[in-house]
Write a structure and sequence with these properties.
Oligomer: single chain
Number of strands: 6
Low-confidence stretches: 10-37, 115-120, 228-234
Shape: elongated
Helix content: 55-70%
Strand order of the largest sheet: 1-6-2-3-4-5
Distance between the termini: 110 Å
Number of helices: 8
Length: 355
Amino acid sequence: MASHRRPKQPSRARVTVLTTAAAAAVALSSQAANAAPSEKPSKDEVKAKVDKLYEEAEQATEKYNGAREKQEKLQKEISAIQDDVARGQEELNELRDGLGSMASAQYRSGGLDPSVQLFLSADPDDYLDKASTLDQLSSQQVEALKEIQEKQRELAQQRAEATEKLKDLASTRTELGEKKKEVQGKLAAAQKLLNSLTAEEKAELAAEQTRASRASEREALTGGGTADAPGTSGTSASGRAAAAYAAAQSKIGSPYVFGATGPSSFDCSGLTSWAYAQAGVSIPRTSEAQSQIGTRISSVSDLKVGDLVFFFNDLHHVGLYAGNGQVLHAPRTGTVVRYESMNTIGGPFMWGVRV
């Protein structure tokens, strides 16, 4: 016969825990139900965040450009040193071969005691001539040994220099990778924010940019911002600055691409260095390096069309002065080469440079 047992009652502690958990769940559900949904950021708020990310990306881009330029320079220097070492090693081998030949000749002619050689010689005069040659060979050996030692020291120095530059190259490549990753991260974050906008909001932002660029173009052209016509304000371009400015004008509408130097896409310093190269003038690759050349101009009123103009405290942005307070530049990712007011760049004007 089956036994009947009373079901085990839950302990008081277990009841308390279950009751507390249930109450907490109810409270959380109530809070979730009553909480107001998070507000979607406005178009202007998104634009401000995106602009900040693009500014940070451009800072990293200029550092990336500097690291890449350094890498290319190091690679050329290392290649030149390695070529020198190879040629030096060939010269050293030739010196050693020459010394070996002299040593062999000396052994062959000096194998017997000199007095015995003289006694056996059928022609004493011939022997004396050979003895003189032997002394000369000995002197040549000394000079050859000195030359070999000097060449060995030179090669050792070159190899040590190459080793140091290879270490520097390795660290530069690491920095290059880090900066590229940083730029890509900033750009991805900016794109994610832009993707949160509606199609209508995106269209509004694009229209605002287009209107601003057209207004800047009108201001530039009425203020002397042409390479082939005299300006009304005395700021027109001339000479190589005119040629550089005309080259930049021909690229209006070309997309901004970080690290690009043309001819189909550019970053800010890529555009300016490319433009001046078309005028036959070689200038540094990065904005910071470009800011240190030519004649510095502190006042906007003293600028002329074609002068380089630099913005932000760390000089990470550069463009070409277009006249009437406008700049022709490659602004940032998502934009194209265009005119823009110096007042809307996003950072303070630091100074200009007349190349």
